[in-house]
Structure formats: structure tokens, C-alpha cells
Amino acid sequence: MFVLVCTITAVCPYAFSRQGTLTGHVVDGFDNPVKDVEINIKKSDFTARTDEKGQYRINFNPGKFDISFSKKGYSKHAFPLNIRETTEVPLPGLTFWKYPESGGIFLVRMDDYKKIEYTSFYSERDEKSLSFYVKGEPTKIECPEEAFEQGNLGLMLLDYSKDEPVVVGKSLYSVVDGNLVGKIGLKSEGWGVEKAEDEYSEVSSRIGIRYVTLKPGKYCYVIGQLTLRSKLGFGYYSEIVEPVQ
Question: DSSP alpha helices (H): ranges in the chain?
């Protein structure tokens, strides 16, 4: 019995010294700390939760492993790591996006979301072109003059699908007089409609972040593409209002 106790005592400190510790913090999309996020090292017994400040500490065995972060009502995160150190290793801060109450596209404001109006559009054809017109009224986006830079406004939009993977095939079009989204000319040299710049970054299978810089005017995020065969479609309709001076 004495020999067995000595063996365990000799092995345990060595095994413990081979572990490292990950530290970090979790905030939401508005830079608020997120409490009670569950952190797991997959295929191990290492678990932890974030505290009131969104901070956490979790042990790991050096080498290749996967770490996951989850909390009900928020997008999940998981990614692989390859760490050989057995010391304390700080991880970059993690942004944990809260799910809105419904699916759609939302403007990310200082402390909440603003839902963009879901709308439909229809087409009208003549001998030379096919035109698309938005129905309904746009969601107004009003910002102070100091938010604009050289007449343009930078926006961060949350693209969220509640029940299934988000559809990333959305194209942003300017809306001109008469709610005209785009006109495809039937010409021998080709056809097309001009789209606005749109940078998309996937957060999870159900959330993506869109970054756009736009001047005042009306815009429609069309689900899918405007084509010669399009007759009816859907999207998200907004208007950036001129700042009041």
C-alpha cells in the first residue's frame, strides 16, 4: 500500500505540470461582457464559464485540440488550436453575437438592433429593358452629421436566419426615383445592373456581418440576383437619410 501511494504522489504533480491555461474574455456585439458562456475543450473534461466581466480561465493539454463557446440565445463558436506551451496563454477577445427575436437584416447600433424592412419587388418589361421596382416604405436610418465621412456613412449590419443556415446570396442595389431597383437593358453587347459594394463576413451558419459604406439614398438587399427571368423577388429595404445640419 505504501508503494502505491508513493507512485501516485510522484505521477500526479508531473501530469499537472504538463497542463497549460487559456485565458480570455467574451463580449457581445455592443462590447458588453457576456456572463455564463460555457467553454469546453472537446474530447476532454476541461470546462469553464465566463464571470460577470466576461472573463474565463480553462486548462488544456498541450497539442492540437478544439475549443467551443456556447450560450443559449447567442451564436456558437468553435475553432481548433495548436498550443505546445504549458504556461498561461491569453486568447484574443471573442465577440459573441446575440440572436435577434426574428430573422432578417438588422442595423447594429450602439446598444441594440434596428430591423430593416422586409419587402418584395416586381418587374416590368418593355421592348428594350426589364425594370425592377420595390414595394412598400424603406426603414429610415438617421445618423448625426458627425457620423458621416466625406458624405458617406459606414454601417455594420447583422444578417440572421432563425431556423436554417443564412442565405449569403444577397446583393445590395441602389434604389432610384420611382422605387426603381435596377434596369436590365436588352442589348446585343450584354446586360447587367450595377450593385453597391458589400463586404460579408460569416460568423456562424446562421449569422453573418455585412459592412457597407453608403451615401444618403434608398437601398435594397435583394435575396438572389436580378436576372432577365426574374418576375417577383424579395429583399430588405432601407433609406439613409441626409443628416440635419
Answer: 2-17
My answer on whether 234 and 131 are in the same domain is yes
Residue at 2 is within a domain: no
16, three cell numbers: 499537472
- Predicted TM-score (pTM) of the model is 0.82
Of 95, 120, 150, the last residue of a domain is: 95
Q: Report yes or no: 41 and 80 within 8 Å, Cβ to Cβ.
A: no
Residue type (1 letter), 82:
N
Alpha-carbon gap, residue 245 to 231, rounded angstroms = 41
Measured CA to CA, the distance from residue 14 to residue 18 in angstroms comes to 7
Q: How far apart are CA 141 and CA 239, in angstroms?
A: 6
Residue 192, SS3?
A: coil
In tens, the pLDDT along 4-48 reads: 333 333 444 444 458 999 999 999 999 999 999 999 999 999 999
Residue type, 245: Q
